[in-house]
Every structure is written in structure tokens, then in C-alpha cells.
Amino acid sequence: MAEVPSLISLAIEAVKREVVDGDDEDDLVSSLSRPFKEWDDYEAPDDCLKHGRKRGRHGNFDSAWKALFKLRWPELFYRTGTVDWLQIYWQTHLQNCLDEASELALLPSFDGCIGEMKISDGILKYIGCEEHANHPNYSKLSYHCQQFGHYASCLRLPNVLCVAETCVDGLCKLLIQNSETLTSLELNYCKLSSTFVSAICASLNIVNTHTHGIRSLCSLKLHDNHLDRNFAWKLFSILLDASSNLSILDLSDNNIAGWLCNFNGKWKGKIPSSLGIGKSLHSLRVLNIRGNDLQKDDVESLSYALVSMPNLEVLDISENPIEDDGIRLVESPFATCTFNVAGKNLKAAIELCRCLIPYFIEAPERCSPLAELYLESCELSCSGATELLDTLSNLKRPLNSLSLADNGLGSQVAGALQKILVTPIKTLNVGGIGLGSLGFKELEKGMIAELKLVDINISKNRGGLETARFLSKLLSLAPDIIAINATYNLMPSESLTAICSALKLAKGSLERLDLTGNTWDYQPNHASMVAEFQHNGSGRPILILPSSFAVDVPYDDDP
């Protein structure tokens, strides 16, 4: 005989159904009678009758939603700042549902409609729906998208959920539902057709900018989606004029070479006095166009566009074969012209400069906040990199982070690197640039003053013993250094003794020194060395040495 439910269990079940299946949790809360006018999260304070104030309905349950979030996602809880816990709970729940559905849809045995996919009891139990016999829709992905979609301000959609033939309609409905509140949209590794892209833009009212449908969108990431130059140009043109607050634009690993050629042709030879009026570009802080096969001409066009991004902080154009011509200074016949852009008097040469170095030179004059620059694998030579480093070393507002990794610069670039090291730069990546022992020796001789470095990558430079001597000098001059990557530098076994001696004398806050991939074999005394140097806060080892259980093959950068 089944147990007769109590009155309180029936009431709890009714409330649960209303929260999960109802349209508005606030309406439910407001309909409940309360014994006092002022009610805290769990009890009424002593002075509740003295003050006639009534706290917001939603605030009364905020700590409860916070506790539920911490219980369900403890690994995410401490990475989440002050938020609307009700909104972030259901947003994360929906993302879990989408991630689970995408994994199942990738199985060869899957053959059906993605919206009809069943959500596992492992997820449903957290919202009290694991026993859904009376309401089978609870288990469907479409139900969760419809019911909790309006809480999603950030959406991360994998490829399998962006197949036009199966789910374009469902995805667009989800986007339409959130077009006024969506702050982040991420589509990675999706083969998006032009039809599908147009449908997405229409869902967000991107096409009709007068409706301001993308006003809330702050982050748009379209990584490796097989997008072409036409889409990139269309998107850029829209953002130039739209009333959006977009701060992050990621178009990395697509095929957008030539995307700004229209922009260049439109303004070449005349003063573009209307540049910079687009609110979207004024709020843009991160631009990632890595891995798009961009050439020198693309960088020339980009230099025009960068002026209309006065608040740009991070620029990543890595893995594009721009070569030296893409960064070098080219004289402009308009250098003496001036005009007004967004209330600022700028030189026309800034608008009409052909490459990046003039942009960097004038960035402080425009009070540009540019802080991070990534030029990895750009086929730069020592000559071009030296010219760039000399320019960056003399900026009134120096960079915080610079990466020139995986460019064949050679040992002669060491002199220019010395200059950038004495600036307040905090993060420097020069891995795989071919410094060699001569380059490290030159760097070590030129290091005299205290450095502000926090993180440096000198891996894959074949520096041998000179790498260890450089590290010893670095540890004595960089008290704020936290992480050093010195892997694959062909350091002999005696290097470890010199490095450990420097670590004993160092008074900094180093947390990680990675020495894997060098030419010494694992020795039993390595364990004691690792145990000797540990980070005070976490207790984790500072030294990362080759493991006795792994065969560490020396790095080989020969073609």
C-alpha cells in the first residue's frame, strides 16, 4: 500500500511544479502570504515591526538560489562574482542540457530530432523532475530551451547544434527569445552556411539595425566556423553603425582574408571624418583575428579600421603570414592633414598609415588603452621584429603583454628584447624564435635593472647552458615573476644545479618553473629537489621536471 502523502509534501510538490513549469517565479512569490511585512531570507528580524520597509521579492530568495548553485556546481561557484543567482542557475542548467544533447547527437546511432532528445536523470534530479511520468515533456531538450531559455544571457553552441538541416529553426527561436538580453554568443567549430548565418543574424535583428536587437550583445565568438570575407565584412559594417555594446569580437581560424578591402577602398585618398561613430567599435576591447591567412594588404586595411576602435585593449593577429611589410612604417603623403573624429583632433597619417607600427606610435597620443599584442607565427624576420620592438619600447604607455612566439628571429633580436624587458611589461612570450645560446648570453649580459615581469615563455630556443645562466639572472632581478616556461632548450644536466642555487637565493613569488623537455634524464634526487621548492600558498611544486614514467623527446624544430 502506498504511503499517504502529508499536506506539507503536497504543498512542496505544488510549489516545485510551479517553479519549474510556471511562467514567472516572482508571481508565485508575490502570491504567498507572509506573517510580517519585512522578512529576511530565513527569519524575520527583531525590528521588522518598527520599520515599514519591504525588501524586494527576488532578494529574499537570492541566497537560496546561491546555495543551490554552489551545491550543484561547486567548481564554478568560486569563479562566479556577484550575480543574479536565479538567472545564473537556470542559464548554467540550460548550458548543461545543450552540452549533454550535443554529446549524444555526435553518436553514430543518433537519428532523430535534437529538440526531442531526452535529458538524463542526472540533470533532471537537480530540478526535481527525475520522475517525469506525469509530464514527459520535462525530459525533452526543447522543453528546457522553451522554459529556461529566457534566463540565458550567454550561449555556447557546438557544431552539432548548428546543423541547418536539423536545428536552425530551434536555434533561431532560442535566439529570438533572448535577443533583448543575450550578452554572449559563442559558436565554435561550426560549418555555417550563408543561409544559416543569415537566419542567425535575422534572429538577433542584426540585419535591421534600427531595431537595436543586438544592443545587449557584449561578446561574439565565431571561432573556426568556415566563415568567409563577405560575412566578416557584412558583420563589421553592421557593427560600425549599430547601437551595440560589443566588447569582444572573435573571428579566429576562419577564412576572412580580404574582409576589409572594401573599407580600405572606400576611404583611401580622402579623409574619413565619419570614422569612429559606431558605438560598437568604440566599446570594442578585444579583437581576435588569429589564423585567417591575412596578408600585408589586410593589415593595411586593418590599420584604417583600428583608429575607429579607441578602446581596444587586446589585439591578436597571430598565425597570419603578414611578414615584415605588415608591420613596418610606410610614409604617408597625408601626414600634415588634421581632422576631427569623435571629438578628438588626430593626424590624417593615423587614418591613412599603411601598416601597424605608425598605429602603435600614435596610440599614446590618442590615449589608446592597448595593452596586449599577439603576433605569433606571422613570418616576421629579425629586422622587422627589431623595428617593432624598438617602437614598442619607446611607447609612453607600454604594453602589459607581448607575444612574438614561433617567428624565426634568431639570436640578433636579443638586443631589441633587452629594451622591451626594461619596460613595465608583465607577460612576454618569445618561445620558438631561435635565440640559441648566443641570444641568451646577450640577454643575460644586458639585464641590469629590476624587471616587472610576471610571466615569461622562453621555450624551444635551444639555448643550452646559457638558458640556465639567463634564468639565474632573471630570478634575481624579477621579484614579481610567477611563471617561467623554459621547456625544450637543450639544457644539460648541470643546468639544474645552477637553477636550484638561484631559486634558493630568489626572494620572489615564483609558482611554476617548467623545465620539461630538456636533455637530462630523470634522476632519483630530482624528487628531493621538487620537494624542496614548493609554493607557500598552495603547496604545489615549483619545479616541473621530466617524469620518470615518461620518455621526454627533445624538441626538434627542424622541418
From TrEMBL:
Pfam hit, one: LRR_6
Taxonomy, superkingdom: Eukaryota
PANTHER family named in the record: F-BOX DOMAIN-CONTAINING PROTEIN, RNI-LIKE SUPERFAMILY PROTEIN
Name assigned to this protein: Uncharacterized protein
Species assigned in the record: Dovyalis caffra
